[in-house]
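Before a computer can learn anything about folding, someone has to put a protein's shape into writing. The outcome of that step, for a single protein, is printed below:
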Amino acid sequence: MMNSRLKIWALIFGCSFALLSCSKNETPEPEKVLPPLSPVTVTASGEYTVTNLPGDLTAKMEGQGMEGNGNFKPVYYSLEDGRVIPAEYANTDKWDIAFTGIYNSSIWANDGTVKFENGNTGPGYGSPARGGIYLVVDKAVDAKYYDEAKHQPRQVPIDKALLDEAYQNVKTVPVADDQFLSRGFLTLDYFLGSGSGYAFYDFYGAMFPGDKSRAHIVYNLPRAIIVKTAKGNYAKVILYSFYKGSPLSPTLASEAPYLNFKYTILKDGSKDFTKTSK
């Protein structure tokens, strides 16, 4: 009987020692330290302008096909706060739109549920946000510059006044929330199988035959974008240019990607863009 008790106590002591040893050897993972955020510049509903916001200026397309993303790092932006958000906050509700892909030309809203059958995820996967994005194609404005049969502008550059007209024509959020795109992104117009887009990519330089400096140029179209923010508010956006300084007629010598856009944010849940404080 004594031997049996000794064996039991030895077993208990041995297990306790093993557990203690394991707990001592386990190194707890350090808490993730997030970088500081830049100051908030937008505190009220109103219209704001973003000029020469750098995209990923280090990535290059040399030797890569157009089907990839070019390894361009995303740019996360908060329309609510008017600031760039570091990539470490990708799975949070701190940002509203992300510019990803080649030359940061794919535009996503922040929706943390986006995961595709192939395992790929959206840029905000895991965030609590349930944002969305919607492209407004104003047929009356399109009729002034766009060739529907060829899916391209009739001529470039496109008058900036038309971009402002398309933007100003959006008086209210034009669709219900279920019409917003959340499981995907806005991209170039009829390029690589896409449909209507917010910008035209002159891949072959067809708009300027014989001028190699005008091939591979992006021209932003007069099409406004509606964003449902991570907080559930609404904004309208017009992108003017992907080139530094927003040149009227960019060439291959123009520096890119630099994001230039204007937006109106409604921070009170309203859908009426005619009623803002600025």
